[in-house]
Specification:
27% helix; 13 helices; single chain; 382 residues
Amino acid sequence: MNGKREYGDYQTPEYFSLDVCQYLKRERQLTPSVIIEPTCGVGSFIKSSLIFDASEIIGIEINPEYCKTCKENIADSRVRILNTDFFSFNLKSLIKGKDQLLIVGNPPWVNNSTLSGFGSDNIPEKKNFKNLKGIDAITGASNFDICEYIILQLIDALHGTNSTIAMLCKTSVARNVFIEMKRTDTNLTSCDILEFNTKKVFGVSASACLLVITLSAEKTSADICNVYSFDRPSEVVSSFGYVNGTFYSDLSKNSPDFSGNCCFEWRQGVKHDCSKVMELSVEGTHFVKGLRESVDIEKNYVFPLVKSSMFKSPIISSFSKYVLVTQKKSTGKHIPHSDGFSQNMELFNLTQRAILKEEEFYLQKRTRFFYVWNRRLFLCKI
């Protein structure tokens, strides 16, 4: 297991952590009394945080070698490094009685499913931490972003305080965090995104940002999240958020209004978490898996696939993908023989063999949507 990948370990260059702290001090005019870095690594943000006149600076880190490095390189009586696991640490007890906190840092950019596939134990307990209901709870529990989980846990711990959270994260995570704060009616005065060049800072190609959340002890809420460039923090590039209770992904565009009254609500989709096997394309007269292998299966369980990314177009006139779905309905109980697929498996021997061939691949994903029973694997359709 590669330790760097397991811990989402991409240490922040010291020059950039200093840029972030200087922005928070000069542009945001923050004067925190206590600063906490929940995943401090070798201490870039801890060292950069010394520019603030805080009475206490606390770093939390699971890696004992990193803790040793922090203590050796940062000689300041205000700094305290805790060698512990954030996922099991009682953060609320640490911040009890404190206000005007600044939580700053760079949590791991990795998701739960990836770590589970590695066999890593550096993951939080898998649970419905967003308190979702029904099928949302099932899909939400199967996979989540570790960085998003950490930020949401921080928000929960800091509820009712006048504190600021400033985290480097993927832009998609920042959007999800904003939406979740609105869903849970979190008290906040502002939520802003400052996009930066990840290739320059970390040497990776990704859409990422500095997410800055200003929480409040008062009952208040911000409906709009503004997006800036980190290099030009005073110029709004775009914005997203809620207008009259409806979420708009880009408020800067004059997009057509497709909202209206509908006589019924509907939803459909497939959660398989195994696209390399279950998503197919057509080459000539054959189906081809994402693994670039030709697969010979019956067409009874192959359906056209329209992915969410295609809905950027007002009219969808074609598609290029197919998906293998082995159930006609979901009863909410994952019981073999519930829809006739297993009863008539002998009629679809090619499909059965194609599925079971990749059984090990499914098990590596550790998803709740794949079940092995008497050497036969069944999917749950949503």
